[in-house]
Amino acid sequence: MFDRRRRGAGPVVRADFLAGVAMSPLSVFVRTLLRSSALFLGTAAVFLHPPLDWSAAHGLPQAPGVVEAQQGAAEAAVDGLVAALKDADPGVRRTAAGALGQIGAARAVPGLVDASKDRDADVRSKAVQALGEIGDARAVQGLMGALTDENVSVRAHAAASLGEIGDSKAVDALVAAVADKSPDVRRRAIQALAEIGDARALDALTKALKDEDVSVRRSAASAIAEIGDGRNPHPHPHPRVRLNWRPEIVR
Description:
There is one protein chain. The protein contains 15 helices and no strands. The protein has a domain at 166-251: Alpha Horseshoe (Leucine-rich Repeat Variant), CATH 1.25.10.10. By secondary structure, it is mainly α.
């Protein structure tokens, strides 16, 4: 279908390659993209890190239509991956969800929220992970629902993704997850509450200091110190930055 050896070429060849991908029939493109790791990685690398500065870096004029071809191909790829979330094969659905998370495609959020209810647990788990990687607040409601999934991995990844998004609307649901039967889910929920930094979680975190699992107790102690007494001790408002500041109060 396409010459994979052309992936490493300059921007003109890449533009031709992507334009061909964008114009290919959707079903063929999606199947090829998801079942061939070489083609998938090559295509993803182009629109994740488009070589827009390649010509300038080498003192060459940029070929006409390169940017437009890349953007069009990227949009076609995202649309194809969203469609693949409904593929009959769970492996394709799982791979599509993971790819959308790596790309960070915000317009894939509704499809990924639907995929978080997939009949296959691995697909659900990958979908909730992808929603955290994208970081769009539209996913919060669906992720809160995933906190009660029957599968431990799905619940744990849902808690982690809510922490990545950092929306305070998830606090009550995460507080409930601190009492989950799985220590991994409890720990992830506590870490997510620390990332959000809302003092409403302090009561639940204080109770978690007596958890039977030592990793949960450590996470609770760290989270309490991070949130403080209602005044987050780290001044930066973004949860991912706050997460890098962790007092070593438990050894």
